[in-house]
Description:
Blueprint: E1 10-17, H1 23-32, E2 39-43, E3 56-59, E4 63-66, E5 71-74, H2 79-87, E6 95-99, H3 106-110, E7 119-129, H4 133-138, H5 143-151, E8 155-159, H6 166-180, E9 185-187, H7 204-207, H8 224-227, H9 236-239, E10 240-245, E11 250-251, H10 253-261, E12 267-276, E13 280-287, E14 290-295, E15 304-310, H11 313-327, E16 332-334
Parallel strand pairs: 1-6, 1-7, 2-5, 2-6, 7-8, 8-9, 11-12
Antiparallel strand pairs: 3-4, 4-5, 10-15, 10-16, 12-13, 12-15, 13-14
Amino acid sequence: MQKTPTPPPIPLTVIGGFLGAGKTSLVVHWLKQAQGQRIAVLVNDFGAINIDAELLSESNSDTIALSNGCVCCQIGGDLSQALLQVLDRPQPFDAIVIEASGVSDPWPIAQIALADKRLSLHGVLVVVDAAAVRGHAADPLLHDSLLRQLRAADLLVLNKTDLCSADEIHSCTTWLHDTVGPVTCLHSQHGQLPLSLLQTDWEPQAQATTHVCSEQCSHEHEHEHATSHSHHGADHASLFTSESRSPAQVFHTAWLREQLQQTPAWVMRLKGWVRTHEHGWSEIQFAGRHASVQRVRHTPVQARVLTIALRSPLQARAMPSWMDAVWGAASTADL
């Protein structure tokens, strides 16, 4: 009796990077460029995934199904369980992408691919905010978490280069190479990278035809490097705190932009949806000391603003009153 051929393992890519570096922009760009490829994306929070309405096929509390055959699945509290649900689907996916949280070490997540024969580890891609990364690295409270992410990378993506001068980009690229060694580094704006990165080798020779690689360097970076250093690090719950609000008011856009520009230094990341006089439903973003207010691509269920802050005595005293002053009275809070 002839054996049924074993299907090839599905390549799994982990996307890491600090809060606001541009991981979600990259994921959404890839999903829109899928062109028949079935991609499963596992994320921690659907609030960060803003998919154009015409691409949506079906949505529930756990999964967003897209009209091109791709899906986004919410990790919730159990990454392994979410991954098994993806693997057990009748029609296999061409690729699986896991978007790690902005404060997590991507390497332990990548090791999951080594534990299931249905998966093969394609690699760890770490997105870097070109304008903010060195400032974060200089903060003694953030240094270890950030360096752990960078050192797990098989491919570095220096994002938001449109916000930097040529000299700043060169200086940051040099700093990355001095910090983590000879890892291939691509430059991007708004996470605009080719979908072919999910299938191609990340050696420099394979990147020469992507038209996005502005820095070539030898790549002798094997996964074994990551097993030799500690991944225990700092307790994220002791470093960061988060709080969310559901503002009922309609904001004047100019006032809102001014408030975002004056965001306290202890705020690491802010994102969400509110209503404004100019745009109606608007998406707000704050990361790396840069802020934006723009019209949403699909209507949210409700207004919601999530703020992630660096935990400190100053933050503990100031955050509640700042949140009340800008976003209104507390509605939900989480740590």
